[in-house]
Amino acid sequence: MIRRDHASVIKAVLFDFGGVLTTSPFEAMASYEIEHGLPAGFIRSVNATNGDANAWAKLERGEVSIEEFSDLFAEESASLGYEVPGEAVLACFSSGRLRPAMLEASRRCARVLKTGLLTNNFSAASDALPAAAREFGPVLEHFDVVLESSRVGVRKPEVRFYELACEQLAIEPSEAVFLDDLGVNLKPARSMGMATIKVVDPAEAIAELEQVVGLALRDG
């Protein structure tokens, strides 16, 4: 669904990486939970507990190493009833596969508009982006700005992350549309004045983006 509080001419399109340009890591999490007898949604519940200061938040801001994260996540998950190795969680975030249709839509946007990639990631996946991005290498070169949480020290949904994107693209928030698969990440962007699209079904999201930018982003 398109959410927009203010009418403005769109000059930039901002894309999330995991769950938008790639398949969602939550699919891999769900499989892990089934295989290891964990309650459905348990890993996400660990990440959501004390969400601004937990192991996952610290990792995405580059404040702890992979080894430190693994120990912290095991402790946090154990405190909620089931100990989960941090390495298992990281593996889920390296399992995403690029979505060709969404990638093509971003390329078509880039021919006319400014484009940015906004990703919460961790330094081992980043020297730069997760495995799927490294595998396909040049496919992300059309983005004007690539903003990585582990490099800039802030993350979605912190407002400063979106401010940095706007500053680097030289736009006002009201001149951008942002696509993400998590409502919690869309809320601050929308409050700043951005149009937002929650990506649940990629085809539907592309159709909604076409409406916002007034461009044909698919064949046919």
Explain what this protein looks like in three dimensions.
This protein has 220 residues and is an alpha/beta fold. The protein folds into two domains: 2-23 and 97-213, 3-Layer(aba) Sandwich (Rossmann fold); 25-92, Putative phosphatase, domain 2 (DNA polymerase, domain 1, Orthogonal Bundle), CATH 1.10.150.240. Helix content is 47%, strand content 12%. It contains twelve helices and six strands. The chain has helices spanning 25-35, 42-48, 55-60, 66-79, 86-92, 100-110, 123-126, 131-136, 149-152, 159-169, 183-192, 202-213; strands at 2-3, 12-16, 114-119, 145-148, 176-180, 195-198. A six-stranded mixed β-sheet has the order 1-6-5-2-3-4, sandwiched between helices. α1 crosses α5. The longest helix has 14 residues, at 66-79. It is globular and about 50 Å long. The two termini are 22 Å apart. The model is unreliable at 126-130 (pLDDT under 50).
